[in-house]
Amino acid sequence: MPVVEMRDVRKEYAGVDALAGLDLRVEQGEIVAMLGPNGAGKTTTFELLLGLVRPTGGTVEVLGRRPGGGVRARVGAMLQSAGLPEQVTVRELVRLVGRSYPRALDADDVLERTALSQRAARTVTTLSGGERQRLLLAMALVGAPELLLLDEPTAAMDVVSRRAFWEQARASVEEGATILFATHDLAEASAVADRILVIAGGRLVADTTADALTHHGDDDLEEVFLALTAETSSAFDKGDD
Amino acid sequence: MTMLRPDQRPAPDVRREPRRNGGVLGLLAMTAATQVRSGLRSVEFAVGAIAIPVLLYAMFGLPNASTELPGGTRVGLAMLVSMSAYGVVSLAIFAFGEDVAKDRGRGWIRTLRATPYPTWVYLAAKAVSAVVHAALIVVVMFAVAATAGGVSLDPGRWVALAAVMIAGVLAFSTLGFAIAFVARPRAAAVIANLIFLPLAFASGFFIPMGELPDVLQDIARYLPTFHFGRLAYGVVMPASDVEYWTGAASGPVLVHLAWVLVPALVLGAVALVAARREAVTRRG
């Protein structure tokens, strides 16, 4: 049974198709990267998988069930638009989110894993951009999820933080989790993911590996990506998704 | 990007075994405790919710504290009721209206919705933490009134007045929720001020109703805050002094109660509909 399955999914916002028949499938234990220009439908895909919005058409299944409701207890997520309350400490937030799951990891252990132990007693307002992202990862990990949905998770991170981030994400996969993440960083997708999905114009235009995409390194990944997405979308035409 | 080889990665340890959590009441208690601590860390709370009512009491209540109304009530006590009511209504409107709108605007409520965390627990915890904060405001106000204003009451009266004030924060919380979910997040603070300040002024929280223009006295009879004040004054003042202080004849307690509770229920329904509409339709 796939962990994530979307069949012919369409999502329309005020007459604009954010997704126009998206098909994708993620198997257990995979790390899958989702690439696409702004407006391609990446964030909409994550929102559908989390049950935050409903599809206009098609079928969405997460861990064999409709998204949202009880299945959220088995999913950890980092949203691109994630917000945090201001005067709450890092430890309080991780404990609070962990407490909402039926089973949770020890908050201090998760903070250690995400290199936030030194910041545990600090309030969110004092964190740097990278620390904030690590806190969001800690909140995604604390419920021991079977599926991690990460929307541009390393956007504000430096190289060291980014590497540490993916080490922890990898550790979760070794413990049985599956990861679907969106990124604009082609090198990151190539280095981290088992499989790369390229979406443009609300459709899947490639489902492959970085190696196959570049013909074993003969082609430039960025050029391949631009060629794949050029026909179906324009970042300036459609704006952010 | 270079990844660590499997043999370089940290080995899973026994602490990574997840532990089973308790029920939703435990989550509610933890959330409320977190929100109480969060409020106490905030300078805005200390100044806006506690210092301002105390300051207003010092300005408007203490200079005439020992003056007596015709029925024997000291002005210090009447102003204590007024400023405590000001404090708890302010807390209700701003803690629920402005703070929830901020959480909504910055995406915290949406972040929670991506977890198993029930949104109603967040809102219920806001109510619990507001009760705790209201109790703090009331205790500080009572302490100032008793020490600096010479206000003296039977223990039962202190408790009854505190109970009315704390019930008030819950009653007016639905107005805050309605502001939080109906207004755009950035506009919520302005709207909360636009609603709260005229309500407080026209309900006689700053100066006695009898000293307000007739037109405001007429309008006040239709304001839930005015009727909340009437209920609170009635707990510690004789009816004749309540009438003197508020410039209006006393009505049955049930009528005042209805003027407070019916708008609270209507606004609660409005807030629920708006919150539900946002949960279903909002994008991004």
Overall description:
With 241 residues, chain A is of the alpha/beta class. Chain A has a single domain (4-238), classed as P-loop containing nucleotide triphosphate hydrolases (Rossmann fold). In chain A, 33% of the residues lie in helices and 25% in strands. Chain A has helices at 42-49, 90-99, 107-113, 129-141, 159-174, 186-192, 210-213, 221-230, 235-238; strands spanning 4-13, 16-26, 31-35, 57-62, 75-78, 103-104, 147-151, 178-183, 195-200, 203-208. Chain A has a six-stranded mixed sheet with strand order 5-7-8-3-9-10, with helices on both faces. In chain A, strands 2-1-4 form a three-stranded antiparallel sheet. In chain A, strand 7, helix 5 and strand 8 (178-183) form a beta-alpha-beta unit. In chain A, helix 2 (90-99) packs across helix 3 and helix 2 packs parallel to helix 4. Chain B is an all-alpha fold. Chain B has one domain. Chain B has twelve helices and one strand, in the order E-H-H-H-H-H-H-H-H-H-H-H-H. In chain B, helix 1 crosses helix 5 (119-147). Classes of the chains: A alpha/beta (241), B mainly alpha (284). At the A-B interface, helix 2, strand 6, helix 5 and helix 6 of A face strand 1, helix 1, helix 3 and helix 4 of B.
Show the largest interface.
A-B, 54 and 44 residues
Main sheet: strands, sense, barrel of chain B:
none
Order of helices and strands of chain A: EEEHEEHEHHEHEHEEHHH
Number of domains of chain A: 1
Oligomer: heterodimer
Low-pLDDT regions of chain B: 1-15
Shape of chain B: globular
Helix content estimate of chain B: over 70%
Sequence of secondary-structure elements of chain B: EHHHHHHHHHHHH
CATH class of chain A: Alpha Beta
Give the name of the CATH superfamily of chain A. P-loop containing nucleotide triphosphate hydrolases
The CATH topology of chain A comes to Rossmann fold
